[in-house]
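Researcher: Structure for this, please.
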Amino acid sequence: MPLHQVITVNSTTQILLWKITESYEQLMGEVALKEKSAKRLEGMKSELHRRGFLSVRKLLAQIGYTDFDLHYDTTGKPHLEDGTHISISHSHEFSAIIVSDQIVGIDLELCREKAAVIAHKFVHEAESKFMDPADPEYIQKLTVLWGVKEVIFKIRNEIGISFKDHVRAEPFVLNDKQTLAHLDMDGLHKVFRVFFETVENFVLVYAFEA
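Model: Predicted structure, C-alpha coordinate format:
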Protein backbone atom coordinates (compact mmCIF):
# COMPACT_ATOMS: atom_id res chain seq x y z
CA MET A 1 0.00 0.00 0.00
CA PRO A 2 1.28 3.51 -0.67
CA LEU A 3 2.03 6.05 2.02
CA HIS A 4 -0.92 6.20 4.42
CA GLN A 5 -0.61 9.72 5.84
CA VAL A 6 1.73 12.69 6.10
CA ILE A 7 1.41 15.14 8.98
CA THR A 8 3.22 18.44 8.68
CA VAL A 9 3.87 19.50 12.27
CA ASN A 10 5.78 22.67 11.37
CA SER A 11 8.14 23.91 8.68
CA THR A 12 10.95 21.60 9.82
CA THR A 13 9.08 18.63 11.29
CA GLN A 14 7.15 15.95 9.43
CA ILE A 15 5.46 12.68 10.37
CA LEU A 16 4.94 9.89 7.86
CA LEU A 17 2.80 6.80 8.39
CA TRP A 18 2.72 3.56 6.42
CA LYS A 19 -0.07 1.01 6.59
CA ILE A 20 1.60 -2.34 6.08
CA THR A 21 -0.43 -4.43 3.65
CA GLU A 22 2.51 -5.79 1.65
CA SER A 23 3.92 -9.25 2.15
CA TYR A 24 7.39 -9.69 3.57
CA GLU A 25 8.58 -10.91 0.18
CA GLN A 26 7.23 -7.84 -1.61
CA LEU A 27 8.85 -5.45 0.84
CA MET A 28 12.16 -7.29 0.62
CA GLY A 29 12.08 -6.87 -3.14
CA GLU A 30 11.58 -3.14 -2.84
CA VAL A 31 14.08 -2.22 -0.10
CA ALA A 32 17.89 -2.16 -0.22
CA LEU A 33 19.61 -2.90 3.10
CA LYS A 34 23.17 -2.51 4.29
CA GLU A 35 24.78 -5.67 5.64
CA LYS A 36 24.26 -4.78 9.30
CA SER A 37 20.54 -4.17 8.76
CA ALA A 38 20.16 -7.40 6.79
CA LYS A 39 21.67 -9.36 9.68
CA ARG A 40 19.40 -7.59 12.14
CA LEU A 41 16.39 -8.45 9.99
CA GLU A 42 17.42 -12.09 9.81
CA GLY A 43 17.46 -12.24 13.60
CA MET A 44 13.83 -11.16 13.91
CA LYS A 45 11.56 -14.12 14.64
CA SER A 46 8.27 -12.32 13.98
CA GLU A 47 7.31 -11.67 10.37
CA LEU A 48 5.21 -8.74 11.61
CA HIS A 49 8.34 -7.15 13.08
CA ARG A 50 10.24 -7.83 9.88
CA ARG A 51 7.56 -6.16 7.80
CA GLY A 52 7.53 -3.22 10.21
CA PHE A 53 11.31 -2.91 9.91
CA LEU A 54 11.13 -2.88 6.12
CA SER A 55 8.17 -0.50 5.97
CA VAL A 56 10.20 2.06 7.93
CA ARG A 57 12.71 1.95 5.07
CA LYS A 58 9.85 2.59 2.67
CA LEU A 59 8.97 5.68 4.70
CA LEU A 60 12.58 6.87 4.57
CA ALA A 61 12.46 6.61 0.79
CA GLN A 62 9.49 8.98 0.71
CA ILE A 63 11.73 11.78 1.98
CA GLY A 64 14.89 10.94 0.09
CA TYR A 65 16.72 8.67 2.53
CA THR A 66 17.70 5.00 2.42
CA ASP A 67 18.73 2.42 4.97
CA PHE A 68 22.33 3.49 4.28
CA ASP A 69 21.55 6.92 5.76
CA LEU A 70 20.23 5.45 9.01
CA HIS A 71 22.27 4.15 11.90
CA TYR A 72 21.72 3.32 15.57
CA ASP A 73 23.92 4.33 18.49
CA THR A 74 24.98 2.02 21.31
CA THR A 75 21.68 2.63 23.14
CA GLY A 76 19.61 1.72 20.08
CA LYS A 77 18.59 5.28 19.26
CA PRO A 78 18.26 5.99 15.50
CA HIS A 79 20.17 8.77 13.74
CA LEU A 80 20.37 10.07 10.19
CA GLU A 81 23.80 10.72 8.70
CA ASP A 82 23.03 14.34 7.78
CA GLY A 83 22.18 15.26 11.37
CA THR A 84 18.40 15.42 10.90
CA HIS A 85 16.69 14.06 14.01
CA ILE A 86 14.53 10.98 13.60
CA SER A 87 12.36 8.77 15.76
CA ILE A 88 10.70 5.52 14.70
CA SER A 89 7.75 3.42 15.82
CA HIS A 90 5.79 0.50 14.44
CA SER A 91 2.84 -1.36 15.88
CA HIS A 92 0.89 -4.14 14.21
CA GLU A 93 -0.03 -2.94 10.69
CA PHE A 94 1.30 0.61 11.04
CA SER A 95 4.74 2.15 11.07
CA ALA A 96 5.65 5.79 11.62
CA ILE A 97 8.64 8.09 11.53
CA ILE A 98 9.10 11.69 12.58
CA VAL A 99 11.96 13.80 11.18
CA SER A 100 12.87 17.24 12.46
CA ASP A 101 15.63 19.76 13.07
CA GLN A 102 14.72 19.34 16.76
CA ILE A 103 15.19 16.32 19.02
CA VAL A 104 11.91 14.39 18.85
CA GLY A 105 10.28 11.15 19.91
CA ILE A 106 7.33 9.29 18.40
CA ASP A 107 5.24 6.32 19.50
CA LEU A 108 2.34 4.47 17.93
CA GLU A 109 0.15 2.28 20.14
CA LEU A 110 -2.92 0.13 19.49
CA CYS A 111 -5.81 0.99 21.83
CA ARG A 112 -6.73 -2.15 23.74
CA GLU A 113 -8.06 -3.23 27.11
CA LYS A 114 -4.65 -4.55 28.09
CA ALA A 115 -3.70 -0.96 28.99
CA ALA A 116 -6.04 -1.12 32.00
CA VAL A 117 -4.51 -4.41 33.15
CA ILE A 118 -0.99 -2.97 33.28
CA ALA A 119 -1.93 0.60 34.27
CA HIS A 120 -0.52 0.10 37.77
CA LYS A 121 2.91 -0.39 36.22
CA PHE A 122 3.11 2.95 34.40
CA VAL A 123 0.55 5.46 35.74
CA HIS A 124 2.20 8.04 38.01
CA GLU A 125 0.48 8.83 41.32
CA ALA A 126 -0.27 12.37 40.08
CA GLU A 127 -1.78 11.01 36.85
CA SER A 128 -4.10 8.64 38.71
CA LYS A 129 -5.94 11.69 40.05
CA PHE A 130 -7.26 12.64 36.62
CA MET A 131 -7.64 9.13 35.18
CA ASP A 132 -11.13 7.77 35.86
CA PRO A 133 -11.70 4.07 35.05
CA ALA A 134 -15.41 4.88 34.59
CA ASP A 135 -14.61 7.37 31.83
CA PRO A 136 -15.67 5.98 28.40
CA GLU A 137 -12.37 7.35 27.05
CA TYR A 138 -10.30 5.70 29.79
CA ILE A 139 -8.56 3.15 27.55
CA GLN A 140 -7.71 5.74 24.95
CA LYS A 141 -6.35 8.11 27.60
CA LEU A 142 -4.30 5.31 29.13
CA THR A 143 -2.89 4.58 25.69
CA VAL A 144 -1.92 8.24 25.34
CA LEU A 145 -0.20 8.06 28.73
CA TRP A 146 1.76 4.99 27.71
CA GLY A 147 2.79 6.79 24.53
CA VAL A 148 3.94 9.79 26.57
CA LYS A 149 6.24 7.57 28.60
CA GLU A 150 7.61 5.92 25.48
CA VAL A 151 8.40 9.14 23.60
CA ILE A 152 10.15 10.71 26.58
CA PHE A 153 12.22 7.58 27.03
CA LYS A 154 13.12 7.70 23.33
CA ILE A 155 14.14 11.35 23.56
CA ARG A 156 16.22 11.11 26.73
CA ASN A 157 17.19 7.44 26.79
CA GLU A 158 18.27 7.77 30.43
CA ILE A 159 19.38 4.53 32.05
CA GLY A 160 17.03 3.55 34.86
CA ILE A 161 13.99 5.60 33.82
CA SER A 162 10.83 4.34 35.53
CA PHE A 163 7.70 5.09 33.51
CA LYS A 164 5.66 5.16 36.70
CA ASP A 165 7.97 7.04 39.05
CA HIS A 166 9.93 9.41 36.84
CA VAL A 167 7.62 10.46 34.00
CA ARG A 168 4.29 12.21 34.44
CA ALA A 169 1.90 13.99 32.13
CA GLU A 170 -0.11 17.02 33.14
CA PRO A 171 -3.94 16.63 33.06
CA PHE A 172 -5.35 16.53 29.54
CA VAL A 173 -8.51 15.87 27.58
CA LEU A 174 -8.40 14.01 24.30
CA ASN A 175 -9.87 16.86 22.28
CA ASP A 176 -6.96 19.12 23.25
CA LYS A 177 -4.54 16.78 21.46
CA GLN A 178 -1.64 18.10 23.52
CA THR A 179 -0.25 18.37 27.02
CA LEU A 180 2.98 18.89 28.92
CA ALA A 181 4.98 16.11 30.52
CA HIS A 182 7.83 16.04 33.02
CA LEU A 183 10.84 13.84 33.61
CA ASP A 184 12.10 13.99 37.21
CA MET A 185 14.96 11.65 37.93
CA ASP A 186 18.02 11.88 40.17
CA GLY A 187 18.00 15.68 40.22
CA LEU A 188 17.28 15.92 36.49
CA HIS A 189 14.12 17.85 35.54
CA LYS A 190 13.00 18.20 31.94
CA VAL A 191 9.73 19.44 30.43
CA PHE A 192 8.30 18.17 27.15
CA ARG A 193 5.62 19.42 24.77
CA VAL A 194 3.52 16.39 23.88
CA PHE A 195 1.02 16.02 21.05
CA PHE A 196 -1.30 13.14 20.24
CA GLU A 197 -4.02 12.06 17.86
CA THR A 198 -5.81 8.94 16.71
CA VAL A 199 -5.07 6.99 13.55
CA GLU A 200 -7.86 4.45 13.07
CA ASN A 201 -7.74 2.43 16.32
CA PHE A 202 -4.21 3.56 17.21
CA VAL A 203 -2.89 6.48 19.21
CA LEU A 204 0.01 8.48 17.76
CA VAL A 205 2.07 10.43 20.30
CA TYR A 206 5.05 12.67 19.61
CA ALA A 207 7.01 15.12 21.71
CA PHE A 208 9.70 17.78 21.80
CA GLU A 209 11.84 18.79 24.73
CA ALA A 210 10.56 22.22 25.84
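Researcher: Any notable elements?
Model: The longest helix spans residues 138-156. The chain has a mean pLDDT of 95.
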